[in-house]
Amino acid sequence: MKKSKYSLLLVLTLVFSLILAACSGGNEGADNSKEEENNAASDVPQEFKMLDSSEIPTMDTVLAEGSTSFTYIGNVGEGLYRLDKDGKPVPAMSDGEPKVNDDKTVFTFTLRDAKWSNGDPVTAQDFVFAWQRAIDPKTASPYGPYMMGGKIKGAAEITQAGADKKEYDLNTLGVKAIDDKTLEVTLEKPVVYWEDLFAFPTFYPQNQKFVEEKGEAFASNAENLLYNGPFKMTKWEGTDAQEWVLEKNPDYWDAENVKMEKITVNVVKDSGSAVNAFEAGETDMTGLLSSDLVPQYEGDERMMSWLDASVFWLKMNQKNEALANVNIRKAIAMAFNKEDLATSILSNGSVPANYMVPKEFVNLDGKDFREANGDMLVYNVEEAKKHWEAGLKELGKTELTIRYLGGDTEASKKIDAYMKNQLETNLEGLTVELESVPFAVRLERDNAMDYDLQMAGWGPDYGNAISFADLWVTNGGSNRMGYTNEKYDELIKKAQGELATKPKENFEALQEAERILLEEDAGIAPVYQRASNILINPNLKGLVEYQYGPDYSFKWMTMQGE
């Protein structure tokens, strides 16, 4: 839940209520064994209530770009693959593994017998329509170009034609319906993580007739959506909704393995209120733990905690003249105490990040990417001041005012206030104007590059370091801060191309790219790698968290008796 989005996990709270898993892949929480799942008492209602910290920005798979959207979409929809209980991609809408040509660029999928929630069959054309819609420049999908470009044949050319205001043909995209049950996908080049790719929500199908009939109303509320996944939304009144309901989808092909009948979600942004609701038995799960509450639940069986694969950083918009100066960026990146932020403000197990690619995410021959590439842009006030003075001199200024776009949740406000104080204290002449806005507004402002600084984060979309590195290529779909470096672009191009099937060389190219982004350019200012903490009813079993894609799955959940 990059995503994205910028398919970013834009910081809304200390811990998103929708969370990414630790790097073991999938993780069944609260001692969720298969035996326990199968022992759900027949007289125990299979339903639960949970709290979320933000509204759902969109339920359109093509327009989704944040972890909240991707997680709910991932529970009501399904692609060719889906992540299983261990976080591994397995065939879903695909009836078994595809046929693959010798050079691993053409995949032929046979679809299983599956239905939409209105009774229509899921067909190969549903995938063609959705993928073409995602790459169509007219749609302005924030994730389509990012997920497809350089991977699905023809995607990059369509995106470029749109940017150049030239004609393009969506039928040149490498996806074709041979018949209702046969889908052919052509890649630009071999992609080692193709299964992860086809499990991601951007690649889910859409019913063309339904979408076109609904027009602008499509995905505006629960009634204007179709579902082919484990659940369907029976209540959701749109992007401002403070409550929504998921119920078991009886038309789902694997419905016999879905035990949970109903999930009710309410939005609560205040951590104290969320915890009070949990303690009063009004909700069964909440991820809204403020830092001062985490120690109180240490050792409590109701709290689950882990270090996940999400990294947070300051984005510095180079449309701003001052932030286009590398010395100013380096000064900002080294002027705040990450250790203090992690221990005193977050205080939830999160750790300081002096990197882009997280710890314990990818490794080569047993050596972690992070261990091999070390730390960069470490907190150092003296060095920060030197860069600050040099930058001001180059700009011909003695002081600067920079806008900081912040979140509106309790936890976000604490983090943002801390950052403002640190930067103003350690960089003489800097004034930080802090503005706190809701999640949806932040996405809009990010898309429009209407900010100077903002705290943002990223959780990987597939199990490869390129999921982080690809964010910052020049004019990339997620690079909405004006960063550009030809050498960086070339390294990413090689990593995705000629080095894609050469693990050692690929690893080294991505490490060099990270050093360019951080050590040379300070393109972003890393802040912390997130730890996640949730409170969950001990009787609620089978929650599976993921390190990439949807934050977690409700498919295998059950409510046990006391």
Automatic annotation (TrEMBL):
PROSITE patterns hit by this protein: PROKAR_LIPOPROTEIN
Keywords tagged on the record: Lipoprotein, Palmitate, Peptide transport, Protein transport, Signal, Transport
GO terms for cellular component: ATP-binding cassette (ABC) transporter complex; outer membrane-bounded periplasmic space
Domain Solute-binding protein family, chain residue ranges per copy: 88-479
A Pfam family recorded for this sequence: SBP_bac_5
Membrane topology: Lipid-anchor
Keyword Transport attributed: yes
Subcellular location: Cell membrane
Gene3D superfamilies membership: Dipeptide-binding Protein, Domain 1, Dipeptide-binding Protein, Domain 3, Periplasmic binding protein-like II
GO molecular function: peptide transmembrane transporter activity
InterPro entries xrefs: Peptide/Ni-bd (IPR030678), SBP_5 (IPR039424), SBP_5_dom (IPR000914)
Superkingdom to which the source organism belongs: Bacteria
Signal peptide feature range: 1-21
Example GO BP: peptide transport
Sequence similarity: Belongs to the bacterial solute-binding protein 5 family.
Record's protein name: Oligopeptide transport system substrate-binding protein
Provenance organism: Mesobacillus foraminis
